[in-house]
Amino acid sequence: MKFTATLASLLAVAYAAPVAEAEADAAPELVARGPGGTNYIQNYNSNLGSFTSNLNAGTFSMYWDNGINGDFVVGLGWSTGSARQITFSTSNLAISQSAAYLAVYGWINAPQTEYYIVENIGTYNPCNGLQQIGSVTSDGSSYQVCKGTRTNQPSITGTSTFTQYFSVRNSKRTAGTITTSNHFNYWKNYGFSASNFNFQVVALEGFSGKGHGTVTVS
């Protein structure tokens, strides 16, 4: 499937790479707004692969088939997050040869927090090396839950120190509905504040290997 919209001239946003992975060299970049419910595009360090999007269809594609040695995150969603149900589907998803994952990804403004609800992973589990804080069951599977702190790292406000929360699905999937409130409510027991949201997207992230995929969000 081919999409015509590109992000060559859009505006800047920030992103922080996972714990234990190298930071990308490029500055945080690129966001767009468009019509409809899914109206926010994030594209960080897109020179590591090929990214196309179609806001009207609620779809984006990412290709890093030639391999990467850095970091990217691209996604489609909302400029302001919330405890919403998010339905997604994928086609041609291939991340098994990449340190990559498919996830709901977003930020809280204050206290500054980065969060992921990971639906599918490749060769790297982002909970490795972080504080393990149990598990939560949601949408037909249990999720491994972990928490970490990033010190003086890239963020939505530049270089800062912030908390990360991850829920990593134990039964990988390529389509379905994500009830974000189930994760937010569990994380609240460990200091998460489900308010003052910044953006919230369904994203593909990768930082080594090769892969590709098309994602539709609603």
UniProtKB/TrEMBL annotation:
Signal peptide (UniProt feature, chain positions): 1-22
Active-site residues per Swiss-Prot or TrEMBL entry: E114, E205
InterPro entries with a match to the protein in the record: ConA-like_dom_sf (IPR013320), GH11/12 (IPR013319), GH11_dom (IPR033123), Glyco_hydro_11 (IPR001137)
Keywords from the UniProt entry: Carbohydrate metabolism, Glycosidase, Hydrolase, Polysaccharide degradation, Secreted, Signal, Xylan degradation
Originating species: Elasticomyces elasticus
Entry similarity comment: Belongs to the glycosyl hydrolase 11 (cellulase G) family.
Main location: secreted
Pfam families registered for this protein in UniProt: Glyco_hydro_11 (PF00457)
Designated name of the protein: Endo-1,4-beta-xylanase
Molecular function in Gene Ontology: endo-1,4-beta-xylanase activity
Catalytic activity, EC: 3.2.1.8
The organism's taxonomic lineage, starting at the top: Eukaryota, Fungi, Dikarya, Ascomycota, Pezizomycotina
Compartment(s) where it occurs, according to its Swiss-Prot or TrEMBL record: Secreted
Catalysis performed (reactions): Endohydrolysis of (1->4)-beta-D-xylosidic linkages in xylans
Listed GO biological process terms: xylan catabolic process
